[in-house]
# Entry
Amino acid sequence: MATRTQAREAVVQLLYAYGSGNEEIGKFFDEILEEQKIKNAQKEFARGLFMGVIENLESLDTKIAQQLKSWDFTKIGDMERAILRLGAYEIVYAKQDRAIVINEAIEIAKNFGTENSKKFINGVLDGIAKNINTPLEN
# Structure
């Protein structure tokens, strides 16, 4: 049986594909999760995360961009952006425990990101968690 961590990893991979220009990836959601043996409750958990990120993409990207001090949002790697989008969604909209979300994001970054991804993702998600009620800037 798949874990929530495995479900999150699958969602990050789907978001990576989506963010890389494959906006039709959602049509293959069931097949992709089936291949990774993510079923039942974890599949529905993953579906909720994926759809939630897609539905709130603009505001999530704004929240992420607000945390970047001297860094351009467009220069974030596709994998890091996918991890940040999922983490930000879980903190802001799904109201998951911030510590768990940040820890999960760091673990996913260890598996899929670069050497510097962990620290970067930790800093951005921690900033989002601390400033969760800050209004969005356009």
User: Anything to note?
Assistant: Residues 69 and 124 are 10 Å apart (CA to CA). The radius of gyration is 14 Å. The helical segments are 4-19, 29-35, 40-55, 57-67, 78-92, 98-112, 117-130.
